[in-house]
Amino acid sequence: MNKNAKYGILLVGVVSLIMFSALTLSNLQDNTKLANILPQDNTKLVNNEKNTTSVGVGSGSSEKLNDKELVNGSDIILIGTVKEILSSKYGNRFSKDIDFGPDHVIYTDIVISVDEYLKNPSSSKEVIVRVAGGTIGNDTFIMEDEPSFKTEEKVLLYLTKDTSDATRDIGPDHLVVTGLSQGKFTLTDDGKAVRPGKTVSKDELLSTIKE
Questions:
Q1: Can you list the residues of the chain whose pLDDT is less than 70?
Q2: pLDDT for the residue 103
Q3: How much is the pLDDT for 143?
Q4: Contact in structure between 128 and 108 (CB atoms under 8 Å)
Q5: What is the pLDDT of residue 139?
Q6: What's the 3-state SS for 8-77?
Q7: Is the separation of the CB atoms in 108 and 88 below 8 Å?
């Protein structure tokens, strides 16, 4: 084989190598662009999923009440048992376009079977107690310091009229707990009355009401 033929083969080989390298680099750049796009799209998808869920937290405003203030500030005081916790509902000013707040809430009604009235007796055997807070679908609203309830719970409740613009005009007839969590005591089998931050005997608590 002469010299010119050898140089020709070598030149073809060099050109082929250059073309292969250029093609490989182009594919690598395309893959890099694709890799940069995919995480952004996935992030948008995750964010969209998160946006379907809303959680609001409200802060209840109630000054600290002593025993006498609880009694005087209550329209009804009773002993009863939690019969049923009804499905949560939106307040009458609720809007998806407005953040949760004092006038934009989810509320829950609690049905209480009355065992005994301690103030302002009534012929009604059941009372509905309304609390701010609850969950509807992906929407959750939590009102700090609102009392919590569970079915079959034995309770002593200080109750007053609902003055909230968001819930007072929504039926059925109902009351709210006086002083938020201050007005709800759980009665235990061993004769105690318990609320967050305070535990007394049931008899001691009853004595403050009957004074």
A1: 1-62, 93-103, 211
A2: 61
A3: 87
A4: no
A5: 87
A6: HHHHHHHHHHHHHHHHHHHHHHHHHHHHHHHHHHHHHHHHHHHHCCEEEEEECCCCCCCHHHHHHCCCEE
A7: yes
pLDDT of residue 96: 59
Query: Which string of b and e fits 63-87 if b means at least 16 CB within 10 Å?
Result: eebeeeebbeebebbbbbebbebee
Contacts of 167 (CB under 8 A, 6+ apart): 91, 92, 105, 107, 130, 132
Quickly tell me which residue has 């030149």 as its tokens.
11
CB 77 within 8 A of CB 68: no
SS (H, E, C) 93-162: CCCCCCCCECCECEEEEEEEEEEEEEECCCCCCEEEEEEEEEEECCEEEEEECCCCCCCCCEEEEEEECC
Give the C-alpha separation, 204 to 126, whole Å.
25
- Position 92 scores a pLDDT of 76
3-class state of residue 165 by DSSP: coil
User: Burial level of 200, CB count in 10 A (0-12/13-18/19+)?
Assistant: middle
Residue tagged 């929407």 (tokens): 139
Of 124, 131, 110, 126, nearest to 176 by C-alpha is 131
Report the pLDDT value the prediction gives residue 57, as an integer from 0 to 100: 56
